[in-house]
Design goal:
alpha/beta, Rossmann fold, 2 domains, 6-stranded parallel beta sheet, about 45% helix
Length: about 375
């Protein structure tokens, strides 16, 4: 099928790296791997993060104009060239989809959405208009692909059960598996680059340094690791951003145990994951945490906060341990358990890599998406 792809929060090609941008690229790749031809519908971005009502109205009006432009352009295209389906990645109250629903109505296309979100508490807040638009779009979708069971539960009032599909986070495990196979070389390189002690376990945290949730995760991490006493370890921190001074202050009590790696290109991350011994992240506000899945793919067990959809990525007791949300003491106790048991860490890491390869691979997601698109094509009236 010819598929028009749209990411209203952050379109492919956006210059600021983020997990959201990376996951959009993974969905694009999965659709292509399933045998479909994917084109970018539009670079229109509907994200409004400040709760500015006037700005939201302006974005909605601009969205209506962009939708009208697409409809006119595609109506003029030959039938064999125009899209046969529309696929939107990640719509929610701050980034509703103003394009897909009107285009699909006008052209008779099936409308599919990955990672939809609709929190009832936003129905009467500063993003009420965005909430209404997101809810309306969700209600018209032929298929909704949900990365967590929590998302599915929230969407049940808006969409029939047969249109809700559990498609947990996925990635291409190949570069992580390759890095795991070269762990010794990556470990030597990282030890030299960051002046790390190869005789102690290396903890790893990967996260953009932004205000609010990310900063709070770093703060809780500092509080937790400060409770480990004289237990030997070092922490590698990968990330950067406007909140770096606040992050540095939060981790300052840990002293020389911190190794700052800064922002790293994605190509360098598999080797960094593979070189370390334990991934640690409180996951404040995380939808599910792609970095946790990347760590698992590289054979790295994790200690993470039991927050929202994190339990769909870290299998508690099997591929890592989940700590009570906002509880640095519990988080520290879980880290202590795994630091004190290298054999358990290794077993969890092996299980994590196998879990990703078998159940969370790009190929697995491509097969699931291919099945649902085939159904949409076979039942066009229902899909519309």
């Amino acid at each position: 099928m010819r598929i028009a792809f749209h990411a209203p929060m952050k379109p492919p090609g956006h210059p600021t790296p983020s997990g959201d941008l990376r996951v959009a690229g993974l969905y694009w790749s999965a659709l292509e791997q399933a045998g479909h031809r994917v084109r970018l519908a539009s670079s229109f971005r509907s994200y409004e993060g400040g709760g500015d009502a006037a700005r939201q109205v302006a974005i909605a009006e601009a969205g209506a104009m962009e939708a009208a432009r697409l409809i006119a352009a595609w109506q003029d295209e030959a039938a064999e060239a125009r899209p046969e389906a529309w696929f939107t990645y990640h719509l929610y109250h701050k980034a509703p989809d103003w394009l897909g629903p009107p285009v699909c109505r006008a052209l008779g296309l099936p409308y599919l959405v990955a990672e939809p979100s609709c929190a009832p508490k936003q129905a009467h807040g500063r993003w009420a208009a965005g909430y209404d638009a997101a809810a309306a779009a969700i209600g018209t979708a032929a298929a909704l692909f949900c990365p967590t069971r929590l998302d599915m539960a929230c969407l049940k009032p808006l969409a029939a059960a047969e249109r809700l599909h559990y498609l947990p986070p996925f990635l291409d495990p190949a570069p992580f598996a390759d890095a795991r196979g070269e762990r010794g070389a990556h470990r030597r390189r990282l030890a030299e680059t960051l002046t790390l002690d190869d005789e102690v376990p290396w903890l790893l945290a990967v996260g953009m340094m932004r205000r609010r949730d990310k900063l709070e995760s770093y703060r809780q991490l500092g509080q937790a690791l400060g409770r480990l006493g004289e237990l030997p370890w070092q922490l590698v921190v990968v990330g950067d951003g406007e909140a770096r001074p606040a992050v540095e202050a939060a981790l300052a009590p840990l002293g020389a145990r911190i190794a700052w790696a800064g922002r790293q290109p994605f190509a360098a991350l598999p080797g960094i994951y593979a070189a370390c011994d334990l991934y640690v992240w409180p996951a404040v506000g995380e939808a599910y945490g792609m970095a946790l899945l990347e760590a698992a793919a590289a054979g790295l067990p994790a200690v993470a906060g039991r927050v929202r959809g994190v339990g769909d990525v870290v299998m508690d007791g099997a591929t890592g341990l989940l700590a009570a949300p906002g509880d640095p003491a519990d988080f520290a106790a879980k880290v202590h358990l795994l630091l004190a048991s290298p054999a358990w860490r290794q077993e969890m890491g092996e299980r994590a890599a196998l879990f990703v390869a078998r159940e969370r691979s790009l190929a697995h997601a491509a097969a699931r998406l291919g099945d649902e698109l085939a159904r949409a094509a076979a039942n066009p009236a229902d899909a519309r």
